[in-house]
Design brief:
By secondary structure, the chain is α+β, with helices and mostly antiparallel strands. It has a domain at about 215-400 and about 420-485: Chloramphenicol Acetyltransferase, CATH 3.30.559.30. About 35% of the residues lie in helices and about 20% in strands. It is built from 14 helices and 16 strands. It has helices at about 5-20, 25-30, 50-60, 80-95, 140-150, 190-200, 215-230, 250-255, 275-285, 290-305, 350-365, 370-380, 450-465, 475-485; strands at about 70-75, 100-105, 110-115, 120, 125-130, 160-170, 170-180, 265, 265-270, 310-320, 335-340, 390-395, 410-415, 420, 425-430, 435-440. Helix 4 runs antiparallel to helix 6 (about 190-200), helix 7 packs across helix 12 and helix 10 (about 290-305) packs across helix 13 (about 450-465). The relative contact order is 0.16.
């Protein structure tokens, strides 16, 4: 975790004071008020519990870029500029969250309200924009425009949480799409991008596959169980920072401020070999885990290989969207699941992966309980903010699973917002054809030698593990060091 300097304390206290909150447990955990457990959050306007947590983070630092998501979509084949614009207009007509701003009442409760917008052409009718002023010339290079749009803060009190820019010619149309994370999560892409790709509104086709919202009693019992799990594992007093191997030095009170700061980051990526993934899927069957869970286990082994910390916590994002929470009405429904891994270098690789699977599944039993109430309970018990240095995730690429036709292909690439939310973030991302690993890090916090090795260590572990199950972790890491020298 970054050093809590006096300058950072001053900044964070000012942000909290400006937001009108005292240093209460609810303010610092991002919980505005208890979730009722009812299905009223299905109605447009009212925030879901995860949105309230993210909104509190936004209020503390509205100039932050950390939750801006930028994509560049390329439409080929028989797609015309007019058809892409028509799809965009259909999207904003149906997707209520994207055409709304936020109001906060006298009690501090945020709520979305509709904010009508119209798309418009520039003077030469060569660039169509929606949700921003479009003050960039058509001659500007697309990646530069996309970076500027992505690295411009959203004023969510006056600005809708999406910006669109469409340019090009028929058969070669480019859209820059920038959204604030308050409005979307990974479960939003099938509805949002599905509309843009197909030109038709698919509706919330995943609703029946989502769990129902629990009643109040069930939710309270689940929160108690999640807190007990936290105290016995990832929130225990002996958890160390994996990058330094040290115990937290701040007081419990100071620790609740230290995570609330963004830092500039660096992102690198590397492909994962298809044949290695095929073999890796067979390993998942051997150890009794899903391939996605096994890749989180790889992230744990990589953390040990990179930092030397055999006992560490990884923070894993998870979906927490419920049946009535349609993406067009409720935006961010993500959750944060910390997991504590303990690695024995003398244990076999197979047993280590089995143990990792057990850790993951025990933690995921509590994925239905939002992180905010758990933090509030920990703080009220006098605990410290959890150690959260490394984020690990396995996620689908935005266009994964979205049907396309040969005569209207669409490609998508991400635009880096320049911010690393955690000192070190590891992500395996898969589309319909390939998988790659992305590593973001905060320079100056993550040592250079760790950052330089990270992608190589992750891809090499996927290559090596299928033939290393019978050997020890120490032997696997020795092979790894020969392949990816320090």
């Amino acid at each position: 975790m970054p050093t809590l300097t006096e300058a950072r304390l001053t900044l964070l206290r000012r942000r909290i004071a400006e937001s009108g909150d005292a240093l209460s447990g609810d303010a610092l955990s991002g919980v505005v008020r208890p979730d009722t457990g009812t299905e009223t959050a299905a109605l447009f306007g009212e925030f879901g519990i995860a949105e309230r947590r993210m909104w509190k983070i936004y209020e503390l630092d509205p100039e932050s870029l950390s939750h801006n998501i930028g994509l560049v979509l390329e439409f080929g084949g028989d797609r015309t500029v007019e058809s892409v614009i028509a799809a965009a207009e259909l999207l904003v007509e149906r997707f209520d969250v994207l055409r709304s701003v936020v109001e906060v009442d006298d009690a501090g409760v945020p709520r979305r309200v509709p904010s009508p917008r119209q798309g418009h052409w520039d003077a030469t009718r060569s660039v169509w924009t929606w949700g921003h002023d479009g003050a960039v010339s058509d001659s500007a290079e697309i990646d530069a425009v996309a970076t500027r749009m992505t690295r411009t803060p959203f004023d969510l009190f006056t600005e809708v949480p999406m910006r669109l820019r469409v340019s090009g010619r028929d058969g070669q149309v480019t859209m820059i799409l920038v959204v604030h994370h308050l409005a979307v999560d990974d479960t939003s892409w099938p509805l949002l991008l599905g509309t843009l790709v197909s030109g038709e509104w698919p509706g919330d086709i995943d609703a029946d596959a989502r769990p129902a919202k629990p009643d109040n009693v069930t939710a309270a019992e689940a929160t108690d169980a999640a807190v007990r799990h936290a105290v016995s594992s990832w929130a225990a007093a002996d958890v160390r920072h994996p990058l330094s191997g040290e115990l937290p030095a701040e007081s419990a009170a100071e620790s609740w401020l230290s995570p609330m700061d963004d830092r500039e980051g660096i992102k690198v990526s590397a492909p994962v070999a298809d044949e290695s993934l095929t073999a890796f899927d067979r390993v998942a069957q051997t150890v009794g885990a899903t391939p996605n869970a096994l890749l989180i286990g790889v992230c744990s082994l990589a953390t040990f290989a990179l930092t030397g910390s055999p006992d560490h916590v990884l923070v894993v994002p998870a979906d927490n969207r419920r049946r009535p929470q349609s993406p067009q009405h409720i935006g961010y429904c993500g959750n944060i699941i910390p997991m504590r891994f303990r690695i024995d270098p003398a244990a076999s690789v197979e047993q280590t992966l089995r143990d990792a699977g057990s850790v993951i599944y025990r933690a995921m039993e509590h994925s239905g309980t939002d992180f905010g109430p758990i933090l509030t309970a920990l703080r009220h018990q006098g605990g410290r903010f959890p150690v959260m240095e490394i984020m690990a995730s396995v996620r689908p690429a935005p266009l994964r699973g979205i049907a396309q036709t040969d005569d209207a292909p669409v490609t998508c690439r991400s635009v880096f917002n320049g911010i690393a939310n955690y000192p070190l973030s590891i992500a395996f991302e898969a589309d319909d054809h390939s998988t790659h690993v992305e590593v973001d890090h905060q320079p100056g916090i993550v040592p250079d030698h760790i950052a330089a090795r990270a992608t190589g260590v992750l891809t090499a572990l996927v290559d090596l593990i299928p033939t290393a199950l019978a050997g020890t972790v120490a032997e696997l890491l020795a092979d790894l060091d020969r392949r990816v020298p320090a």
